[in-house]
Amino acid sequence: MCLFVGVSQTIFTRIMALKSAKAIWDYVEKEYAVDERICSMQVLNLMREFELQRMKEFETVKDYKDKLLGIANKIRLLGGDFVDSRIVENVLVTVSERYEASIVSLKNTNDLSKITLVELVHALQAQEQRRLMREDRVVEGALQAKHHDSRNSRKKNFKKNQLASNKNDANNQNKGKVKRKNYPPCQHCGKMGHPPFKCWRILDAKCSKCNQLGHEVVICKSKF
Q1: pLDDT per position as a tens digit, 43-56
Q2: CB count, 10 Å around CB of 159?
Q3: Please, where are the H alpha helices in 33-60?
Q4: What is the pTM for the complete model shown?
């Protein structure tokens, strides 16, 4: 029962038909035991993979350190001898150029052969945080300037449109006044602002509501 519970689902389907713990143990040992020759080949492949690692531009220091540590721990599990100083050397050589200032500062103040992986990672992370803070301030300042410019532009356009609208209203009012002044008093109603042929009070007009002469149906009293 302990062997059944301790294996994965894939292995369980292979050993579920076996009747004794000895048979299960023999099968698992035969299936998954790795000899020394295979272990040494795996160690060599992992060492080659470790040496070919390079830090990408989008990677952070923590992500790159975790990736290198993962490969180093696999080598240690297979029985290989792997010290942290090799990880430190790899990080110093393969990190991105943006961390060059921190590496030069560490070289001037400390002996790089004695620096630990934790100290190196903390120094690189400090520079990374400062760079991110500067980029955030630059982006924030650019956004504020853009917002300020767009706000001023909207204000200018609003004032310009308002002045144009007021000017058009004044022109329309002046045109209306000029038109009204151009018309003499109407001979039918005595009012200004319209020609006589548009007047509702015309002597020969006949109302269709009350059938009387002298006005149109628009101003007929019987309509209301």
Answers
A1: 899 999 999 998 88
A2: 10
A3: 36-51
A4: 0.46
Region 129-153: mean pLDDT is 69
Residue with tokens 């990736």: 67
Token digits of residue 17: 């038909």
Three-state DSSP state, 213: strand
Cα end-to-end span (Å), the chain: 102
Average pLDDT over residues 2-29: 88
Cα separation, 57 vs 85, whole angstroms: 24
* For the chain, domain boundaries: 34-132, 185-224
The phi and psi torsions of 171 (rounded to 5 degrees) equal -65, -40
Q: What is the Cα–Cα distance from 84 to 12, expressed in whole angstroms? A: 38
3-state helix, strand, coil in the chain (%, to 5): 70, 0, 30
